[in-house]
Design a protein that fits this description.
Shape: elongated
Number of strands: 9
Radius of gyration: 18 Å
Helix content: 25-40%
Order of helices and strands: EHHEHEHEEHEHEEEH
Largest sheet: 7 strands, mixed
Structural class: alpha/beta
Distance between the termini: 32 Å
């Protein structure tokens, strides 16, 4: 990954969470380049906390930062640009893998791999709230920071996991994904420093959903 430096006009520095935005960001960047030939943008795969700090420090122009709690940082503006639904990841030979949909109460006796709240607080809180609504107290065996790691552990029989549906795009031999009967859903956001005067930033925001 390129080291982050202070931004000064072009190129546009953009942060994103690969597991959430890998299929969304490339088309938006292509639309930006088509509208503004000669413009360039550098992408950086960063956690929400890293993006917030880099935005406030002027090292990023925009950040596909994740969920509402991660975007709601003083000094940052935000725009809702999509939604994310969560699914359950199971080992391929798990008994419930034959179900077309699964209700959370049916998972009450299972062991779970959790999403690290320190690294991805929005996703972790969304999952916790879904379990609470279903009256389930999950038995966590490990908290994990990366999607690749979660899927590897699920494939090895280390537990089940509630994950963003976008993780289906990751290589996942030995893992199956099943929708939930009442799936937790959360909004996704792009953020930028409120006082960033960059014309390129405004041009980029204009090609995103809600940008007119």
């Amino acid at each position: 990954m390129r080291p982050l430096r202070e931004t000064s006009g072009k190129p546009l520095n953009v942060g994103y969470i690969w597991g959430l935005f890998h299929s969304r960001v490339p088309p938006w960047l292509e639309a930006f380049r088509q509208r503004h030939p000669g413009s360039t943008a550098h992408l950086f795969d960063l956690t929400p906390g890293e993006q917030a700090r880099a935005l406030l420090d002027g090292k990023l122009d925009a950040g596909f930062i994740g969920f509402a709690c991660e975007a709601g940082v003083p000094g940052l503006s935000q725009r809702q640009i999509g939604t994310c639904q969560f699914v359950v990841a199971l080992p391929r030979h798990h008994a419930l893998s034959r179900q077309s949909k699964i209700s959370l109460p049916r998972l009450g006796n299972e062991l779970f791999l959790g999403i690290s709240e320190q690294t991805y607080p929005g996703a972790a809180r969304c999952v916790s709230a879904a379990f609470a609504r279903a009256g389930v107290r999950p038995k966590y065996v490990q908290m994990v920071e990366r999607g690749f790691t979660i899927l590897g552990l699920v494939a090895g029989g280390g537990g089940l996991a509630l994950v963003p549906e976008t993780l289906r795009a990751l290589p996942h031999a030995g893992v199956v994904f099943r929708p939930l009967v009442q799936p937790p859903t959360a909004d996704l956001y792009v953020a930028w420093r409120t006082d960033n005067p960059s014309p390129a930033l405004q041009q980029f925001l204009a090609v995103l959903p809600g940008g007119g």
